[in-house]
Amino acid sequence: MMDSLSQSGLPFMKMHGAGNDFVVIDSRGRGAVMTPGLARAIGDRNRGVGFDQLAEITTSDSADFGLVFWNSDGSQAGACGNATRCVSDHVMRGLGVDRVTLVTARGTLRAERLADGRVSVNMGPPQRDWREVPLAQAVDTLHLPLAGDPVAIGMGNPHCIRFVPDAEAVDLAGVGPGHERDPLFPQRTNVEFASLIGPDHLRMRVWERGTGITLACGSGACATAVAAHLRGLTGRHVVLEADGGTLEVDWREDGVWLTGPVARVFDGVLSPGFVAAHR
Ligand SMILES: N[C@H](CCC[C@H](N)C(=O)O)C(=O)O
């Protein structure tokens, strides 16, 4: 494995899910190759490739494939809905099927391709208990004792959702970092700002833990839709307008389904020297 990396480099794909931007590395049939240092180096938009998340595909005994997610600061994410949809599309095309199962830190998930080409994934049930999000102390997750009266929801990763009159007007870079690192969130948090723009229709903007501003966030869309329903703002089926595209969330009996577009943008190879220098 090290031989092929040091001789031919490391192939990757660039994929987009509603503007959420991913580097995908397919490590099926060999061991996982990612390290925090290599993830940070690839994630650097000037010195590497740049991504919102890096997704590494692994071989799984119990599902069609496994997935591990990295943020551009070298931390791991327990969930990434849009990368799950993108990678599922890639694996389904390779296997010639329209449905797959995959294993993430959250457990086994199911994904499928719809007739219109969009890809859906069941992200599992929302985590509403403060211990699961996780929060640092026992508080009502539907009304956090923080500025703006936000909601906390876990989707395999933590989310802090704030409903505002106009998400457009929020200074994400100004307020995102403070929310991300609020002591109430011991593992930091992703931050969503959302406003109702029509019946079951939300505008959302995102500050992601470990990455910053992104054009969309699938687990964030799920958490936002769940929070909107619990607050009485919407039904269980919600359309969300992110900066990079439209996502649909359907909170069903069996879990929170996330649907949206996927695109494979380009394929590349990280040079052997780059990999060796950062691994
Ligand atoms: N973009 C991803 C979520 C990344 C979350 C990550 N920033 C974390 O640390 O949890 C999505 O589509 O769900």
From TrEMBL:
Q: Which family, according to the similarity comment?
A: Belongs to the diaminopimelate epimerase family.
Chain positions recorded as substrate binding sites: N20, Q53, N71, G81, N82, N157, N190, E208, R209, G218, S219
Name this polypeptide is given: Diaminopimelate epimerase
Which pathway does UniProt place it in? Amino-acid biosynthesis; L-lysine biosynthesis via DAP pathway; DL-2,6-diaminopimelate from LL-2,6-diaminopimelate: step 1/1
Q: What does it do? A: Catalyzes the stereoinversion of LL-2,6-diaminopimelate (L,L-DAP) to meso-diaminopimelate (meso-DAP), a precursor of L-lysine and an essential component of the bacterial peptidoglycan.
Which InterPro entries does the record cross-reference, listed alphabetically?
Answer: DAP_epimerase_AS, DAP_epimerase_DapF
- Enzyme nomenclature, EC number: 5.1.1.7
Quote the subcellular location field of this record: Cytoplasm
Q: What is its main location?
A: cytoplasm
Q: Which organism is it from?
A: Tabrizicola soli
Catalytic center residues: C80 (proton donor), C80, C217 (proton acceptor)
**Catalytic activity annotated for this protein?**
(2S,6S)-2,6-diaminopimelate = meso-2,6-diaminopimelate
What keywords does the record list, in alphabetical order? Amino-acid biosynthesis, Cytoplasm, Isomerase, Lysine biosynthesis
Q: Does the record bear Isomerase in its keywords? A: yes
Mention any Pfam family matching this sequence: DAP_epimerase
Q: Name one GO molecular function term.
A: diaminopimelate epimerase activity
UniProt-annotated site: Could be important to modulate the pK values of the two catalytic cysteine residues, residues: H159, E208
Assembly mode: Homodimer.
